Amino acid sequence: MIEQSLLLTDAYELSMLEAYRAHGMAEIAVFELFFRKLPPERGFLLAAGLEQAVEFLQNLRFGAEELDWLAASGLFAPDFVASLAEFRFTGDVDAVPEGTVVFADEPVLRVIAPLPQAQLVETRLLNLVHFQTVIATKAARVVLAAPGKQLVDFGLRRAHGAEAGLLAARASYLAGFGGTATLQASRDFGIPAIGTMAHSYVQAHDDEAAAFEYFARVRPRVLTLLIDTYNTERGARIVAALAPRLAAEGVTVGAVRLDSGDLAAHARAVRAILDDAGQPNIRIFASGGLDEYSVQALCNADAPIEGFGVGTALTTSSDVPALDCAYKLQEYAGTPRRKRSEGKATWPGRKQVYRRYAPDGTILSDTVALLDELVAGEPLLQPAMRGGLPVPSLTGLAEARTRAAASLAQLPPPLRRLEKADVPVEISPGLRALAARLDRDNAA
Amino acid sequence: MIEQSLLLTDAYELSMLEAYRAHGMAEIAVFELFFRKLPPERGFLLAAGLEQAVEFLQNLRFGAEELDWLAASGLFAPDFVASLAEFRFTGDVDAVPEGTVVFADEPVLRVIAPLPQAQLVETRLLNLVHFQTVIATKAARVVLAAPGKQLVDFGLRRAHGAEAGLLAARASYLAGFGGTATLQASRDFGIPAIGTMAHSYVQAHDDEAAAFEYFARVRPRVLTLLIDTYNTERGARIVAALAPRLAAEGVTVGAVRLDSGDLAAHARAVRAILDDAGQPNIRIFASGGLDEYSVQALCNADAPIEGFGVGTALTTSSDVPALDCAYKLQEYAGTPRRKRSEGKATWPGRKQVYRRYAPDGTILSDTVALLDELVAGEPLLQPAMRGGLPVPSLTGLAEARTRAAASLAQLPPPLRRLEKADVPVEISPGLRALAARLDRDNAA
């Protein structure tokens, strides 16, 4: 499903490969992908995107047309372009499984491979892991804000292109959403497809009641009627009058959808109209510019709403559409490496994250340590690929969704309430010592 | 290049089609796509995405595999799914040409087609036109902030998936960027590919000077050296010492790139180091979390920087990752239609936008009017498709880029300075009268 062209990369990756090749630099490199400081709007991240990252690495090769274009482009020397025909990914990947809560500065994915391989995959690995982690995190916040509610991804139309819409549906389902409006996401990922009707459907009819009745007769299975095209309460009264007639034919109105105005006030008015008409089983579903804050406010206000469609704010993560993440060289040819650019220095070497829990299962603290240090806690990074082949146990959307529910339940209560709280992420003594030694060597 | 599956749509589009089919509703429908109120961060929009929208409509059909999946999904009746095999778009499209400045409430695209056709295409049309317009607008702001500077899209890694990265490259080139780092965008759209080197390249070498020298010998054509991996000024001194030696071999260092710290201060220090070493022709290129505001500040401060790589802020439009846009039914079977949902009421009927200019060419005001009203000004919507086939004269990236430069030059000076200013968008008397009549009829 996802785009697989190896030209979906930054030009400089190939420039560097050309230089590496000219100087025979193909020793083993270790790159790690991590998120830097989180913005104030985010207290945790939910790791996602690993399955697509593994799929990308496993299928990585230059097609004949791509090589022809590269050769014709004049950007690279012909013998270098020819050498790319045999290019494959043969390395190892360790990663934090999808659906695991992570924090800033923690490596979420490590690639160990010959330098050209590990280098080339940088752009697309970041592109895949960053985006799904951004969306899974946003979705997790909505899930935490609305316990027990039905949540549906409505965001394809304002997602950033096709792949964004599809992967946002996946990432939000992973985080605990119950379904998506996007049919292709339902096909590609097995997510329940959920849909109602648009205002245009109601408008196309001269009469709102007739529009509802026609729809109900044709599509009786999953029946939600959109009632705010002209006047929400009038729409509710039409449904209240229609529902008994439809019931006599065996058609059940499952829900009404509100999409505008003061949703809490409308929901209460509509609930009263439906209850007074003896229709307590017709549920109320709301949409329209919702995010975790408005959903939380509606839940806190006990608005009689059973489900929410969340669109733009979800699929663009509108308050935090991007996070500061990086994929950095930590070791080459057995020697640890450290970037020291101002404000962007990295921790060198091959690392693991160890997590400790309180007796009730709440996350207490994490430690980022060198792989060979002895540190208490649960190691988060696990084998995802060996010798270019996937370790099957680590991927799978259903497993990731189960894991996400468990991992979110381990968050400290303030983070579960979308409040600000810091989980301590400690840097191990061994890692600090290594960084200090590299800085001394480099300054010398 | 772009995703073409018709399953890339909201489930409800097909639900509505099923209901339309059951009741023989296939009269001509008129839908218009427009942007609602702009956020405070945006004073204008740059229309983009039409070429991909037309490509989508022209190639629109359900594949056999898609129909098989729909039939197996149980979401829709078998005879309805079977009827989709013949589905094509045969309608007319009028649109504001790409690269034209537009404002809130102005229709940018109109579809006139049998109701099922015009309905089904809603989700993907919005997805394509919204995203590219968001990005072209953001890019235009960077272009206005940095007159005469080289601007390059660096944003694939944090774009929202593959298509977002590719279409952001296109939209930013349309708006006046000079190139992109994304190779596939260069191939697909003919945009110049521009690349330098990453910190990992420098780190992989034990010695920074050697890293530069190797790179220069292998890739002498477009040579930019990244100098901030360890210490920016030290990097500049290494380049200053290396450049004469390389020049003796016929290799010219074109530029150095700064990617961290106080870019203005580093640029001045680096400029002095290079000038003192007799290297005034080595240009300075900057990147690292830039947006239109930081670029404007660097230009206003006369920082000696000749070009900027803009990444995340551009390809996610990070301050405004989504705009409020809609695709609404304005007429069905010859009768104008009006949605009246609270805060989301639409202007009914088939409309045109007329633009008026001051003698010096500056945009004075626009009028949104009914198609058959007589209004002074230049009509913005032009034929883009007739009978399901493209009107070729209206698309083309090169033409759109030329148009964008001209249209941005017509913006009132405050908008060109990224300040807030309102260009009056008037609603014609005929349109107001029609809306009032429909509201009366509906209330009656």
Automatic annotation (TrEMBL), chains A, B:
<comment type="pathway">
    <text>Cofactor biosynthesis; NAD(+) biosynthesis; nicotinate D-ribonucleotide from nicotinate: step 1/1.</text>
</comment>
<keyword id="KW-0808">Transferase</keyword>
<dbReference type="InterPro" id="IPR013785">
    <property type="entry name" value="Aldolase_TIM"/>
</dbReference>
<dbReference type="GO" id="GO:0004516">
    <property type="term" value="F:nicotinate phosphoribosyltransferase activity"/>
</dbReference>
<dbReference type="Pfam" id="PF17767">
    <property type="entry name" value="NAPRTase_N"/>
</dbReference>
<protein>
    <recommendedName>
        <fullName>Nicotinate phosphoribosyltransferase</fullName>
        <ecNumber>6.3.4.21</ecNumber>
    </recommendedName>
</protein>
<dbReference type="GO" id="GO:0016757">
    <property type="term" value="F:glycosyltransferase activity"/>
</dbReference>
<comment type="function">
    <text>Catalyzes the first step in the biosynthesis of NAD from nicotinic acid, the ATP-dependent synthesis of beta-nicotinate D-ribonucleotide from nicotinate and 5-phospho-D-ribose 1-phosphate.</text>
</comment>
<keyword id="KW-0328">Glycosyltransferase</keyword>
<comment type="similarity">
    <text>Belongs to the NAPRTase family.</text>
</comment>
<dbReference type="InterPro" id="IPR041525">
    <property type="entry name" value="N/Namide_PRibTrfase"/>
</dbReference>
<dbReference type="InterPro" id="IPR007229">
    <property type="entry name" value="Nic_PRibTrfase-Fam"/>
</dbReference>
<keyword id="KW-0662">Pyridine nucleotide biosynthesis</keyword>
<dbReference type="GO" id="GO:0034355">
    <property type="term" value="P:NAD+ biosynthetic process via the salvage pathway"/>
</dbReference>
<feature type="domain" description="Nicotinate phosphoribosyltransferase N-terminal">
    <location>
        <begin position="7"/>
        <end position="129"/>
    </location>
</feature>
<dbReference type="InterPro" id="IPR006405">
    <property type="entry name" value="Nic_PRibTrfase_pncB"/>
</dbReference>
<dbReference type="GO" id="GO:0005829">
    <property type="term" value="C:cytosol"/>
</dbReference>
<dbReference type="Pfam" id="PF04095">
    <property type="entry name" value="NAPRTase"/>
</dbReference>
<keyword id="KW-0597">Phosphoprotein</keyword>
<dbReference type="InterPro" id="IPR036068">
    <property type="entry name" value="Nicotinate_pribotase-like_C"/>
</dbReference>
<feature type="domain" description="Nicotinate/nicotinamide phosphoribosyltransferase">
    <location>
        <begin position="150"/>
        <end position="331"/>
    </location>
</feature>
<keyword id="KW-0436">Ligase</keyword>
<dbReference type="InterPro" id="IPR040727">
    <property type="entry name" value="NAPRTase_N"/>
</dbReference>
